[in-house]
UniProtKB/TrEMBL annotation:
Keywords: Coiled coil. GO terms for molecular function: microtubule binding. This is Protein regulator of cytokinesis 1a. It holds the Pfam family MAP65_ASE1.
Length: 543
């Protein structure tokens, strides 16, 4: 038996005992039977009324609680095994808590909805989809809060982008001397920043407006730069005074509308002045043309092909021809600037290499001070390595250029690689010529020494190992004078490395004597001549 059944049986038993006791009391008092029945009916009715009132009180609370639970998507009340009093008490307590939660959630929903409307007004977006007539769940409120948080971040990002673009638009309009024309431009520049609608369309329109203004600004800068370049050229050609140039200093830097108008006016003035000074202008252009001819390595035939360069009839047509030629040369140089600069580097390196090669054969370079000889040798070795690398790099660039242009790349009227090969060949021939000249001079000196003897030379301060002191040399000369009775007798020291000639004067030998002397030298035992050149001192040793 259930506990509730036991409680019900006990309650019925207690009620029966109470009624029996009540009947006993009525009998003692002497209440008639009909009144007893009447009083019993009153008690029964009172119990029924109490039960009905409990049911009436509980039913609305239960309905509200069940509806609230359904809105919260939760479970209903558990009223099994409870008395009416307990059930009423629990329902009222839980209903009070639920009503508080409902009030809080509805209040928060209204707050979030208000914030959502404000953001939607600023960003022109669609409100969050939620039913305002029902109580939201915790998950719905969390989702709503997360949505508004992301929307607020997006609003702040768009506002920052709007402020940055607005500043750039104002700067561009100031530089262009332009006022807002359309209603959108006035909304951007003149109205309050907080009142601007931060929709995607408006942000895109802002970016488009900024792009248009920047393009217009770039066009003005290009026009102003072209004016400035032309003004600078005409100033140089016309030799305009510095005082007149300083009056345009502000306009030569800024590119606003007023600056562009001032530059255009100056160009017209200089064009009129150019017509008045035709000869001077043409001569100045010819000087520039000659410089570009040099920079572009034009050959003599290419230069002579421009016949107006040699015309002396200074007319407007001649001026136009020179200006067109100058523009063509400038374009040609700019198009192939990297190649021309590479050729220039090679030419400078080659010139320095030739200078260092020429110093190699100069005996005076051994008298250097401060280590210049080592520096020159290191520099010559570096150039000897770098020149072929530079030539290889230029060859690759020239080959690519010739493939693109379908013509040969000429330097001074001939192909650059051919020109390089010719320069190396000329250097080789020059070295060969110098070598032959030195050999011929050496042979002539040997023949002269054989015919007339070796001339005594003053020893230098720096002597080789074994070179006698001046005192010993004087003694040796004295000995040579004593034993110098034989014609052409020359005493040579094999170990001291010096030679002393007899002071006796000799007549030149005839051709027959020279021939016989040479024959005797050939038939004699091995006689070897060693010729050393060391700091200008010539030593002949005979073994």
């Amino acid at each position: 038996m259930r506990r509730s059944d036991i409680h019900a049986a006990e309650s019925v038993e207690c009620l029966n005992r109470a009624l029996n006791r009540l009947k006993d009391i009525w009998e003692e008092i002497g209440i008639p039977e009909d009144q007893r029945l009447q009083r019993t009916d009153v008690v029964r009715k009172h119990i029924k009324v109490s039960s009905a009132s409990f049911q009436t009180s509980i039913e609305p609370c239960g309905s509200v609680g069940r509806a609230w639970c359904l809105q919260r998507q939760g479970c209903g009340f558990e009223d099994v095994g409870r008395t009416m009093l307990q059930l009423e008490k629990d329902i009222r307590s839980r209903l009070e808590v639920m009503m508080k939660q409902k009030s809080q959630r509805v209040k928060e929903l209204k707050t979030l909805s208000k914030q959502d409307r404000e953001l939607c007004d600023v960003m022109c977006s669609v409100p969050f989809c939620i039913d305002m007539d029902t109580v939201p769940s915790l998950e719905q409120l969390d989702s709503y809060r997360s949505y508004l948080k992301d929307l607020t971040k997006e609003k702040d990002r768009r506002h920052g982008e709007f402020v940055g673009i607005k500043r750039q638009i104002i700067v561009c309009m100031e530089e262009l001397d332009q006022l807002p024309d359309t209603s959108f431009e006035r909304d951007v520049v003149c109205e309050d920043e907080e009142a601007f609608c931060l929709s995607n369309d408006n942000i895109a329109a802002l970016q488009l407006l900024l792009g248009q203004l920047e393009d217009r600004k770039t066009e003005n800068e290009l026009v102003c730069n072209s004016y400035r370049s032309k003004i600078q050229e005409l100033w140089e050609r016309l030799q305009v005074l510095q005082e007149e140039r300083e009056g345009m200093s502000d306009h030569m830097v800024q590119s606003r509308k007023k600056n562009m108008d001032a530059l255009e006016t100056e160009c017209r003035r200089l064009d009129e002045l150019k017509i008045k000074n035709m000869k001077n202008v043409i001569e100045a252009i010819r000087t520039e043309v000659a410089l570009f001819w040099e920079s572009c390595y034009y050959s003599l035939e290419q230069r002579r092909a421009f016949t107006p360069y040699y015309d002396v009839d200074y007319t407007v047509e001649l001026l136009n021809l020179h200006e067109a030629e100058l523009l063509s040369l400038k374009k040609h140089y700019q198009d192939h600037r990297e190649l021309f600069e590479g050729v220039t580097r090679w030419q400078e390196s080659w010139t320095l290499f030739l200078q260092l090669e020429k110093k190699v054969t100069d005996p005076s370079r051994f008298n250097n001070r401060g280590g210049n000889l080592l520096k020159e040798e290191k520099q010559r070795a570096d150039l000897q390595k770098s020149l072929p690398k530079l030539e290889k790099s230029l060859k690759a660039q020239i080959d690519l250029w010739e493939e693109e242009q379908y013509r040969e790349f000429l330097v001074n009227g001939q192909r650059f690689l051919q020109y390089v090969e010719e320069q190396w060949e000329l250097l080789r021939l020059e070295k060969e010529r110098e070598k032959n000249e030195r050999q011929l001079k050496k042979n002539q000196q040997i023949e002269h020494d054989l015919m007339y003897g070796t001339a005594q030379q003053t020893p230098s301060k720096r002597r080789l190992a074994g070179t006698p002191t001046p005192g010993k040399a004087r003694k040796l000369n004295a000995t040579s004078s004593i034993y110098g009775s034989t014609p052409n007798s020359t005493l040579r020291s094999a170990f001291r490395g010096t030679m002393c000639q007899s002071p006796v004067l000799r007549l030149p030998m005839s051709a027959s004597k020279v021939s016989s002397a040479l024959t005797i030298c050939v038939q004699a035992q091995r006689i070897t001549f060693f010729i050393f050149y060391f700091y200008g001192l010539k030593i002949i040793t005979i073994f």
